[in-house]
Amino acid sequence: MDAIRVGALLDDTKFDLRLTLVAGKQGLSRRISSSRIQKPGLVLAGFTEYLHKERVQVFGNTEMSYLATLPRERSVEVLRSFFGQDVSCLVVTKGLQPPPEMMAAADEAGVPLLRTSHLSSNFIESVQNCLEDVLTAQTSMHGVLLDVFGVGILLLGKSGIGKSEIALDLIMRGHRLVADDIVDVKRKTPESVFGAGSEIIKHHMEIRGLGIINIKDLFGVAAIRERKKIEIVLELVEWDPNVEYDRLGVEERKFRILDVEIPMLVVPVRPGRNMTTIVEVAARNHLLKLQGHHSAREFQERLNRAIALAPGGRVGEIDVE
C-alpha cells in the first residue's frame, strides 16, 4: 500500500494509538505515505525547508510550551503558517489540550488535529509500527507456510498435489503451521518477506475427506505460529520421467516474492517418496548452509580434487551431471 488516510489512524485498535479528533474533521481523507514521524520544532521558528508533508507531525510538551510563550498574535501567525504547509495531520501528545488558535488554524486549513494520551516517545514508536505494518508491500499467495526447525518453508504446487497432507504430517512431528491455502505476505525489509495466515481461515486447514480442521484446537498453541519469515520456497511437482531433476544441488534456484529473491527447491512427488522427511532435510540443509557448509559444493570440490590427483586425471574443474 502506497498511503493510508489519516482517518484510518482513528480506527486502529491493534497498536493502541489512543487518538481522538480535536479539529480539522474535513481533512480526515488526507493521506500519509511515509512511516517516519516528524517533530517540526524549527517550523515554529519559521524554518520550513525540511518539513515533510507526507509524514505524521507530532507536537509534544516542548513545542506546546514554546507556543505558550508567544504573544497571541504571533502564535496565530505561526500556526497558520504551519497548517498552511499542507501537512497530512498534527498529533498533540501527553494529553495536552490544544489552544483555541491551534484548533481554529487546523479547521481553517482542513488539516486533522489529533490528540493522544501517550508520551511523545511512546506514541512515535506505536504509530511507526502501525504505519510500517500498513504501508509495507504485500500480496497473497496460494500455498502452505510452515515453521520447520525454525526455518520458514513455503510449500507451493497445484491444488490436490498434497501440500496440506504434508503439512499435517509435519505438524504431527512437532513442527508449526503458519498458514494453509492463503498466505498473506509482507516485505518487512528490502531483503526479507514474512508470511501470515488470513484472518478468516487462520489456524485452519482443509484435508480432503476430513474437511476443515482447526490445528490450534487439535494440537494446541505450540502447533501454530502467527507469522514467519519465508526462507525457502519448496515447489511440489508431479513426477515426470522425461524431466531431468536436480540431483546435486550445486546451483541454487531463486523464487521472487515482492522483489525479494528466496532460495527455491523443486521436488517431484510420486508414490513411495517420504515428502515429510524431504521437507525436514531441506530445512536442516538450509541451516547447515547458514553455518557456511554447502554439502553439494563441498562434495563437488572433493571430487574435482580426487580426479585431478588420480593417475591420468584431468586437472581443473569438471561438470558433474
TrEMBL record:
Gene3D superfamilies in the cross-refs: HprK N-terminal domain-like, P-loop containing nucleotide triphosphate hydrolases
Keyword Transferase annotated: yes
Annotated region described as Important for the catalytic mechanism of dephosphorylation, given as residue ranges: 268-273
Binding site for ATP: G157, K158, S159, G160, I161, G162, K163, S164
Catalytic activity: [HPr protein]-L-serine + ATP = [HPr protein]-O-phospho-L-serine + ADP + H(+); [HPr protein]-O-phospho-L-serine + phosphate + H(+) = [HPr protein]-L-serine + diphosphate
CDD domains assigned: HprK_C (cd01918)
Note: Both phosphorylation and phosphorolysis are carried out by the same active site and suggest a common mechanism for both reactions.
UniProt protein name: HPr kinase/phosphorylase
Organism name: Anaeromyxobacter dehalogenans (strain ATCC BAA-258 / DSM 21875 / 2CP-1)
The encoding gene: hprK
